[in-house]
Amino acid sequence: MNQPVIKVEDLWKIYQLGEVQVEALRGVSFEIEEGEFVAVMGPSGSGKSTLLNILGCLDRPTRGRYFLDGQEVSQLNENQLAQIRNQKIGFVFQTFNLLPRLTALQNVELPLIYAGVPSQKRKEQAIKSLEAVGLEDRVHHYPNQLSGGQQQRVAIARALVNNPSIILADEPTGNLDTRSSEEIMYILQGLNREGKTIILVTHERDIASHTRRILHFRDGQLVDDEIVEQPLEAGEILKELREEKVVESL
Amino acid sequence: MNLSETLHSAISSILSNKLRSFLTMLGIIIGVAAVIAMISLGEGTTEEIVGQIGSLGSNQITVIPGRSRGMPGMPVASRGGNMLEWEHYLQLRDFTFPGIKNIIVENTTSFPITYGRESVRGRVVGTTPQYPEVRNFKVDIGRFFDQRELDNAERVIVLGRTIAQDLFPSPEEALGKKIRVGRITATVIGVMEEKSTGIQDLGEQVFIPLTTMQKRLTGSKYIQSMTIQTETEENLDSVAQFLETFFLNRLKDPEKFSIINQQDILDTINQVTGTMTLFLTAITGISLLVGGIGIMNIMLVSVTERTREIGLRKAIGARPFDILIQFVIESSLLSALGGLIGIVLGIVGSQVISKFTSYPAIISVEAIIIAFSISVGIGLFFGIYPARRASQLDPIVALRYE
Q1: Does residue B335 contact residue B364 with C-beta atoms inside 8 Å?
Q2: How far apart are CA B329 and CA B323, in angstroms?
């Protein structure tokens, strides 16, 4: 039971851009235990997106090994990777990536469709997932009828619906205002408290400070593994924001 | 991802852009509608022509003087002059070649036909008593003339329905009346049934014994055509061969007569319509090809537009195959829908054309099945390339696509 959810060993990713070789990752190793809430930080070009793609099984490392739930996934073929993405990983994107022609419920159901879950069960699970992010009253809304924060919550529900081993969030608050950002962080913190392993890529210190561990990247290498002693509580911040609003309106 | 999910997703995608979907389908719609309408009208017309030939009696061989020119079996007689004589008929009749059932002679001349003050111009046919049987053209009132009346060249006449109605208040009153045909006066002994070949009204003819015509009306010993009816279809070839020898022996020159096998005519018609159908099918094939390219074009646009969607689907677990199927189903559905609309349009169209032009239309189930399968096939074929492109998109690139 004590095996890490994620274990990477000496991970290298080298791109060939014309004549030039770009080393996006240069020998990265770390472990993430079940139930952790980790932020990956770094300037652009630091290799954090490449790392996220590899962790999300969207890409394969040039060298090195990646164990997800004890299973080595670095050399799986495309179909096997698709299955891993479907079963073990929940994605949350900066731009939400909801399908505009589908309702919130249908969007959340999508991963289950590819998992081959029968329609009735799919619906139940999707509704449960939407309840977990507090959108039980927006089930039949289309994305364009929802606010940015709500759309991102639908996306989180979609990431949750397959009960994945990890949730990968790529700048989930990048397109949101402070208040919506805190709402999203509040949900993520809640999920983490329930035991979900969450990895969040961000370049905002404020956001990263909501997590309990920060991996700092620079030039394709892990330069610092920081433990956050006192994570920010999104719940507290939201309360303050609400009080500010009340003061303003007085 | 199962089929019903894929179908569902394809339908919603098609419905989400109705105008574009319709325009995409238009090529297929027009192609399929054209093929259905063409085949329906073509088959209807062929059937009618064949039916008309059949309605003039079956298992027939016609002998005419002179050389028949043009396409094989098409009776375009040259002015070969008068070579066939009454004597030939009598010899042939007495020969009793096996397989020959009936022989009739037909001479047609136009004469004024008069009763009292009423006068019409009609085609006077001098023939033999077996005419009704061979031509499948019955007497309605009274009777046809018999052998005795032929032998004696009696002045009797059988009227076509239209002529009887023109000359008398009702066809029944014509019986027993004396009417004038050219120089002679003849007694009406019968009125034919109503009949038309579709091209001409057979009621505008009157029938008299050939001998009467030759001796009393035209004074000519020659005959214009002789029609031999065989017992069965199998006899046609042997009888035709026999006739060839028979007339060659008597006339000494193959240029002086022509033997036209009814089967040859039918074969020719079938051959001509078969070629026409092939031709039309080829043209329709081209239009369906164009329709298919239209579908491919739109599917490529659709793949580009939905790059992010494809990336997202892949990120959450769609295999390349799932994406491939999604797009192939979408294009097949599009073309199948086009095919269905085309079929409905083709059926309605052929009925409308049939109504306004009197060309008969026969809706061919075969044509419908083939047209539909082809349209689905086109969607499959032209959908595969765009679908493969979609399935091979790199999810990382696709997700970042703007």
Answers
A1: no
A2: 10
The amino acid that residue A244 corresponds to is: E
Phi, psi angle pair for A173, to nearest 5°? -105, 5
**DSSP letter string, A5-17:** SEEEEEEEEEEEE
DSSP secondary structure letters along B173-228 = GGTT-EEEETTEEEEEEEEEPP-B-SSSBGGGEEEEEHHHIIIIII---B-SEEEE
Nearest to B156 by CA among B109, B124, B132: B124
Residues in chain A: 250
* pLDDT, tens digit (0-9, with 9 covering 90-100), for B347-400: 999 999 888 887 788 888 888 898 889 888 988 999 999 999 999 999 988 888
Which residue stretches of chain B have pLDDT < 50? 70-79
Do the beta carbons of residue B82 and residue B274 sit within 8 Å? Answer: no
Is the Cβ of A91 closer than 8 Å to some Cβ of chain B?
A: yes
Say how far apart CA A15 and CA B141 lie, in whole Å: 101
Using CA atoms, how far apart are residues B179 and B114, in angstroms rounded to an integer? Answer: 6
- Residues in chain A with CB shorter than 8 Å from the CB of B322 are 82, 114
Contacts of A91 in chain B (CB under 8 A): 315-316
Which amino acid would we find at residue B220? Answer: S
> pLDDT value at position B319?
92
Task: Using alpha carbons, select from B25, B5, B4, B3 the residue that is nearest to residue B14.
Answer: B25
- Substitution target from B12, B16, B312, B326 for chain A, most A beta carbons within 10 A: B312
CA contacts within 13 A on the Cβ side of B336: 15
Q: Do B396 and A111 touch (CB under 8 A)?
A: no
Residue A44 contacts B where some CB pair is shorter than 8 Å: no
Contact B16 A101 (CB under 8 A): yes
Closest-CA residue to A63 (of A11, A6, A24, A7): A11
CB-nearest to A83 from B1, B13, B317 is: B317
Residue with tokens 């001796």: B215
DSSP string covering A51-70: HHHHHTTSS--SEEEEEETT
Does residue B157 contact residue B186 with C-beta atoms inside 8 Å? yes
Tokens (6 digits) for B314 = 């892949």
Residues A89, A56: Cα–Cα separation, whole Å: 7
What are the strands of the beta sheet with A63-68, ordered from one edge? A20-32, A6-17, A63-68, A71-72
> Could you report the per-residue pLDDT of B41-55, keeping only the tens digit for each?
888 888 888 877 777
Question: Which tens digit of pLDDT belongs to each residue from A69-120?
Answer: 989 987 788 899 999 999 999 999 999 999 998 999 999 999 999 998 998 9
In the block, tokens 């080298």 appear at A14
Count the helices and strands in chain A (H runs, E runs): 8, 10
Across the interface, which of B312, B317, B396 has its CB nearest the CB of A82? B317
- Please list every residue in chain A whose beta carbon sits closer than 8 Å to the beta carbon of residue B21: none
Angle, CA A181 vertex, CA A179 and CA A186 arms, to 5°? 95
